[in-house]
Amino acid sequence: MKSLGKIYQPQKEEKKIYRLWEKSGYFNPDNLPKTKKGYFSIIMPPPNANDPLHIGHAVFVSLEDLITRYQRLKGKRALWLPGTDHAGFETQIVFEKKLEKEGKSRFDFTREEFYQLVYQYTKKNQKTVYQQLKKLGASCDFSRKKFTLDKDIIKIVLNTFEKLYQDGLIYRGERIVNYCPKHQTAFSDLEVKYEEEKGTLFYIQYPLKDGGAVEVATTRPETIFGDMALAINPNDKRYQKLIGKIAIEPLTKREIPIIEDKRVEQDFGTGVLKITPAHDPTDFEIAQDHRLLPRRVIDFQGRLNELAGSLKGLKVLEAREKTIEILKQNNLLIKTEEITHRVGHCYKCHSTIEPMIMSQWFISVNKPFGKEKKSLRDRAIEAVKTKKIKIIPKNFEKNFYHWMKNLKDWNISRQIWWGIPIPVYYCQEQKTEKCQKEKGIIVSQKKLKECPYCHSQNIVKDPDVLDTWFSSGQWPFATLMTAKKGDFEKFYPTDVMETGWDILFFWVARMIMLGIYCTGKIPFKTVYLHGLVRDKDRQKMSKSKGNVIDPLGVIENYGADALRMALIMGTGLGSDIILSEEKIKGFRNFANKVWNASRFVLMNIDDLKKKPNLTKSDQKILKDFQRVIKKVEKHLDNFRFNLAAETVYRYFWFTFADKIIEEMKIRIRENKNKESAQYLLYLILKNSLIILHPFMPFITESVWQSLPEIKGEKREKMILIEKWPTSL
RNA sequence: GCGCGUAUAGCUCAGUUGGUUAGAGCGUCCGUUUUACAUGCGGAAGGUCGUUGGUUCGAGUCCAACUACGCGCACCA
After folding, report:
1. Residue A419, Cα to own-chain centre: how many angstroms?
2. Are A402 and A408 in contact (CB under 8 A)?
3. Last residue of a domain, one of A507, A533, A561
4. Burial tier of A578 (Cβ tally within 10 Å: 0-12, 13-18, 19+)
5. Which residues in chain A land under pLDDT 50?
6. A72 touches strand B (CB under 7 A)
7. Can you tell me the ipTM of this complex?
8. Which nucleotide is nearest to A8 (CA to C1')?
9. Model pTM score
10. Tally of domains within chain A
11. Of A356, A391, A411, which closes a domain?
12. Do A637 and A683 share a structural domain?
């Protein structure tokens, strides 16, 4: 008690307290006292192992630790399983930037060497991440921590690949993919950011073989070299007589057919669409239906190839200008028009995405399979529709359905070096029927020297790696199957998946699809989505804007408890989290209030040796408090964390500190029913600490350690494993 | 085009099933330092809860329309 100074100093207390918890071993649910029954589990969304934690991570730590601690208090054997993600593409970019600063690139190393370097780098970062989690007060079980590149995790991921392949749900195909010429890799549809942009629509004349001409509008004249047809809408009366005729592609004078297809919009441009199957998704689809072959004219560096003749080697934009010049000289450019259209950009470097034909691995999300004859997509939708999985806030369920409805096959190949290699070889000779039937594809997790079917040694390893979300999509069951024996049976399906709404599609949807596919069960019962952290001006926090709040700096200055409260209170369900230093200061003050109220109580009850009877009016005060506890409990059970926090906050400060303590102060001083007053203070303080503990774990534990012994009063040695108060 | 969301005090935001004088933090003004806390305490100013209409005994809360802003998805060449 004497040790409690006038001002709460989190820096002094937090380290000490965390060590106390760690020594107890209670973060591991297996070590909890026998009084804790029933299992509760939450898997941590693995932070990328390429950077220290930022404020966004502090949000999930605050919320998930809050949930875990609450469940522990409520008597559950609560498991919060931590881990880190290798974050394929993201990490490779971060690491390559680092190399760039040293004047190097990944091409200065062999692929093996590069992989090892990044591996070491992520290992180092993981240490930092785990230290930071501790600073935030995370009560996760570090003895179960996992990494997406742990051998046992990789094995599960590759098994899933194999299973999907055998079930015909994964296929290799030549498709139009989203290709970033700078990063030289393809992406899934989700990694493309579409933005409104001003562009020019060029009206170009295509001569007809039989004489005459037709006008075509395009924003990408440089792809004329890849034109394989012109298309018009079958209902377009203007062009009926052109169907079946031959047009002359105006640059290299190739003869191309005029076809009809209802995907052509009559109202756009001239109503005539040039079909460039190799470089446009719609054109690709139309070409497939009309059996037109793609003609690739742009290479993987984003430059025109030899099919463009003199324009070979020019970048797309340069080629566009040149093309227009040539067309002008030949009087084939009729007019230009300014338009705004949506253009896809690489979410990382903002380069214009080049739709390209590439051989890639896709997951068939819409193909029915199994006894139920339902697709991955439909099974996921059903899990949410039937409320097996609940999404909070509820309106995200609609977003989820909307997105799932539009879902197309998922490209999981990435042309990068950092990640889990696709476990496939290609037999180049295909000497046996079996080889040919498989189109030379050999799925194998082991290193192969020859084709297992025809024994040809002319085999090639697939050079690509898997999309990171393919592995993290298996995270809930992969972790529980490997962290500790028996965990999967006890803890799966997990209770809560808590993460940011920005990765609902990237991650959550994929976990649902892959979880159900691999285990036959949903991966989690409730999805809780939190908002993005923004600054006072509603700006997204980013390094480049210079408005980032470093969680560790905040902890250093104001304490982890203050930061956690600031992230939870005043934040409505589903809305973004507005954070400012002033707000954090406010909760630092609250921590100090808790400290001093506790100090006062401890100083004034040290002569209370045994439990007295309470006066009637004191019993009433206790009853009011009981109602507050119930309210907090209800809010927590409903995932209304901000309301729960506000309820505790207001009761502690405005009722307990401002009113009850002030009244009792006088009674103790004037010796009026003094013992009842003292005992009341003790009871309210003790139980306030418990209900406050999930929000502010450090200070509550710290005070708990100083509570005096009172005859007839029992309590746990650590508030961490106390029981949530039910009746007072 | 389809879908979702937001609009409450000077600023940033809470306000679950509609119900007594609409809340917090920061800021402003006045007072306050001998006794838990000035990271405090007491008090004050400040809101026609975006607009209009509707349901209701009663609406910040439900419904409709409108206005403004934001976001997601989609094959506009």
Report:
1. 17
2. no
3. A561
4. middle
5. 1-2
6. no
7. 0.91
8. B39
9. 0.92
10. 4
11. A356
12. yes
